[in-house]
Amino acid sequence: MSPSINSADNATSPNVEYTNEFIRTQAVYRGTEATKDESGSVIATPYEKKYEFKINRKVPRVGVMLVGLGGNNGTTVTAGIIANRLGLTWQTREGEQSANYYGSIVMGSTIKLGVDPKTGEDVNIPFHDILPMVHPNDLVVGGWDISSMNLGDAADRAAVLEPGLKNQIRKELSAIKPLPSIYYPDFIAANQGARADNILEGSKASRTHLDKIRQDIRDFKSSHNLDTVLVLWTANTERYADIISGVNETADEILQSISDGHSEIAPSTIFAVASILENAPFINGSPQNTFVPGVVDLATRHKAYIAGDDFKSGQTKMKAALVEFLVNAGIRVKSIASYNHLGNNDGYNLSAPAQFRSKEISKSNVVDDMVAANTVLYKPGEHPDHCVVIKYLPAVGDNKRALDEYYADIFLGGHQTISLFNVCEDSLLASPLILDLVILAEILTRISWRETDSSSSISDYQGFHSVLSLLSYMLKAPMTPPGVPVVNALGKQRTALTNFFRLVIGLEPESEVALQQRLP
């Protein structure tokens, strides 16, 4: 290993080998196992493991296919890429605005590398400089929608973009027309039927639909000369699919059920299966249970990557941060009341009870791990009362109103009430998350690892688990591998993400102990 070689444009690390094709790093991961003995005492045992990581340096030509391309999120993220690529500015009532990637953790935040020994100050670099990542300006966007409207007209319908921006990119947007998509009326609200004029033939899940989506992915990859394609669902929220033995519990069952046209196979599941079979990472950005056990089994079998569920952009992100803070501060949150009203098509679809139930589940479980971690404040199985309300109000459009009340027990029988009013410009918050999910999922396909513990033989390099739980920061109901606990606490999710990339370039996970500043 070279003693000191740049692992990225702005980061230097020992234990790194920098070749024309790969970056190879050595890293030590230190953790602690905690177990209870027969007397109930907790025994904490530190351990360490040595790893080698290999990162493919070449940034591929990447395409992203959005399911729901003509919706609010699809038109907004596509417009954002075009505006940034062209370096556009436009006038609003608040003055001149310019294209940016605010709201993206990859493009708009930094990672701490260490502390300057001379000044004692932190040294930070942009997140996207830690390793060679695809730039969002270089993404090629396409996809499917049940509406045939071109993206220029769809952007008018969405009413998200400022006119001064929209008029400058109308030509580029209007040239993009979604591919026909899958429409099973039983899975989305009946009020979406009026938009469904661009659908594949057939009324049930079928091998024909699966094969057509797979062909669309291959054609998109070929026609745009792409190295990699990722697929992301940002279409309507579906109702939950029933988990049925013999239908969707294993990989073989899910494939057979699709061939049989079983009525309990959702459109999103067809897209997920097609992506897995085409080795295209699939990300679910809505709260339905796309990843039934059979889909996870199929992804594991094919060593394909999946991640979900539901974008975490506004109210839930605030909740994940605030409840983590309160519980860690020793304040016992007793109840949470969350109310939303919004007027975009997402709100229209969620006005149907079955689709609202999918969203309610994803928004309600977000505090469970934080509560379970504090056995001083909460007994086993105890949790705050939690109510979630979503109402459709056309007048507010994409400017979702989120009102929250947190009611907590404090010292000596006292109470604290925190009320928040949060105006979330829904699609403008979600679109940067789409970019983060795509960029990070793509680079994870270029990182492989092997354990180098001297007590065991060196294993071959391998990829990560098919369920990319590392992307949890962007997701409201983050998926984890079977049997692995879910982490919703926002601070833990971001720390896991940034420390992972530090580890991959050969640095120790960052600690805020700053011991050198606290000892005489």
Automatic annotation (TrEMBL):
SUPFAM superfamilies, per database record: Glyceraldehyde-3-phosphate dehydrogenase-like, C-terminal domain, NAD(P)-binding Rossmann-fold domains
Cellular component terms per the entry's GO annotation: cytoplasm
Protein name according to UniProt: inositol-3-phosphate synthase
Keywords of this entry: Cytoplasm, Inositol biosynthesis, Isomerase, Lipid biosynthesis, Lipid metabolism, NAD, Phospholipid biosynthesis, Phospholipid metabolism
UniProt key word Aminoacyl-tRNA synthetase: no
GO molecular function: inositol-3-phosphate synthase activity
EC number: 5.5.1.4
Family indicated by similarity: Belongs to the myo-inositol 1-phosphate synthase family.
InterPro entries per record: Myo-inos-1-P_Synthase (IPR002587), Myo-inos-1-P_Synthase_GAPDH (IPR013021), NAD(P)-bd_dom_sf (IPR036291)
Entry's localization field: Cytoplasm
Catalytic activity as recorded in UniProt: D-glucose 6-phosphate = 1D-myo-inositol 3-phosphate
Domain Myo-inositol-1-phosphate synthase GAPDH-like intervals: 314-427
Annotated metabolic or biological route of this protein: Polyol metabolism; myo-inositol biosynthesis; myo-inositol from D-glucose 6-phosphate: step 1/2
Needed co-factor(s): NAD(+)
Organism ancestry: Eukaryota, Fungi, Dikarya, Ascomycota, Pezizomycotina
A single BP term in Gene Ontology: phospholipid biosynthetic process
